[in-house]
Amino acid sequence: MASKEGGEKTKNAQGAGDNKEKRRKESILDLSKYLEKSIRVKFAGGREAAGILKGYDPLLNLVLDNTTEFLRDPDDPYKLLDDTRALGLVVCRGTSVVLICPMDGMEAIPNPFITQEG
What we know:
Its main location: nucleus. With 118 residues, the chain is of the alpha+beta class. It has a domain at 32-102: Roll (SH3 type barrels), CATH 2.30.30. It is 20% helix and 38% strand. The chain is built from 1 helix and 5 strands; from the N terminus they run H-E-E-E-E-E. It has a 5-stranded antiparallel sheet with strand order 4-3-2-1-5, with no helix packed on it. The longest helix is centred in the N-terminal third of the chain and has 24 residues, at 2-25. The chain is globular and about 50 Å long. It starts with a helix and ends in a 16-residue tail after the last strand.
């Protein structure tokens, strides 16, 4: 009898986990509108690159084509130089992505963290 109750608790815990998992899959960023468009990406550590977004996943891993890296000043790693180098097709690891910016401009969106009172 005790094992049956434990089984029910496990079921309920799994059900709660499913709801949590569904919420986790939902992403705040919708990068689909930037597919096949030029974007600029800033990485942890100061590197910057620009390229055409070919693909992405929920962890923010990015695939960029025709990628150009903007080289940095050796004395100040956060200062960019005018020099660039072509990288071609690259995969950017999502954990190092700090900022994604479309090259053709931006649009304002409402803050998704503020609850709307109505």
